Amino acid sequence: MSDQMPQVTINELPETARSIEKKEHQEITSQASLTYQLQRVNSWAQRLPDRAYSLITFALLLLIWSIISALKLVPDLFLPSPASVLRRFISVANEGFVDATLLAHAATSVARVLVALLLAIAIAVPIGIFIGLNRYARATIDPLIDFYRPIPPLAYLPLIVIWFGIGELSKIILIFLAVFAPISIATVQGVRRVDQSRIRATLSLGANRWQLIRYVILPSAAPDILTGVRIGLGVGWSTLVAAELIAATRGLGFMIQSAAQFLVTDVVVMGIIVIALIAFFFEWGLRRLQTVLVPWDGQI
Fold first, then answer.
1. Model confidence at 40, in pLDDT bands (50, 70, 90)?
2. How far apart are CA 26 and CA 24, in angstroms?
3. Cβ distance 240 to 156 under 8 Å?
4. What is the DSSP string of 189-253?
């Protein structure tokens, strides 16, 4: 019995061609629809501001945290629920924790950081200008700053306690040392970036040394100085917990350490969130201040 090949009749050819053509048309239509939908999603995403993406990110993190807590994947001792942290926030704000309310702890910590920051600005900016303008100062002072800058604050904490005791002065000095290096280094870089032609033009017009610093160097270096202040404030704020280990009775770092000793985890998490929020507002405020004080940034 011989094999027989299937044959397509002449009448079936147009119908087969139409079927193939219809299938190709459906695929093209589907691809075009998918491309259109992707373009719409992309256009919608581009219209969203950056702040919306930040809010979405925090919302997702909060959702994941809530799900983990609801499913009891992690014991409450190690990761309390967002509701528990919120209740503890209200409780500490109203009734206090370790003999002080949340506002008192936060105000004490902010005061320590601000005093150290202002002291560092008052000393680091003139020294940075001096280093940037004088090669002898650069050769003598720069190595000292580079020597102590990489040392963690906890390393020289015992020495500060021995020298200055356990009062407020030792805490402020510890934060000051953490803030000083970033501000001085940023000031030096800002002075070195000043256009030399502007300096020569100012001197050719008869300006003295003080006028040169006041009207040329400081305005030109101000963006770098403010950037150094922002970095220094972040470093100083992160050093706060170490500073408040020194026989403190108030402060956010002291509150967190006390809560950790008694395994009050919701207070620990709440304190961390408060520290992060205050640091965020500090950063936001300094960015706004930089925009107001140095509107010429990037134009000179």
1. low
2. 5
3. no
4. HHHHTS-HHHHHHHHHTT--HHHHIIIIIHHHHHHHHHHHHHHHHHHHHHTHHHHTTTT-SSSHH
Among 221, 124, 111, 107, residue whose Cα is nearest residue 179: 124
What SS3 state is found at 129?
helix
CA–chain centroid gap for 228, Å, is 13
Q: pLDDT tens digit string along 239-253? A: 887 788 776 788 898
Structure tokens at 104: 């008192």
Q: Does residue 256 contact residue 97 with C-beta atoms inside 8 Å?
A: no
> In the structure encoding, which two tokens stand for residue 17, read together?
């061609």
Pair of tokens at residue 122: 């008052």
CA distance 6 to 97: 90
Is-contact 69 79, C-beta < 8 A? yes
3-13 pLDDT tens trace:
554 554 545 44
Instruction: State whether residue 218 is helix, strand or coil.
Output: helix
Classify 249 as helix, strand or coil.
Answer: coil
In 3D, which of 184, 185, 173 has the Cα closest to residue 242?
173
Entry pTM: 0.76
The sign of the torsion formed by the CA atoms of 200, 203, 204, 205 equals positive
What are the distances in angstroms from CA 160 to CA 171, 173, 174, 175?
9, 8, 7, 11
DSSP 81: -
Residue 65: which of 87, 51, 84 has the closest Cα?
84
Tokens 């053509």 correspond to what residue?
Answer: 21
Q: What are phi and psi of 83, to 5 degrees?
A: -65, -40
> 82-293 architecture in CATH?
Orthogonal Bundle (1.10)
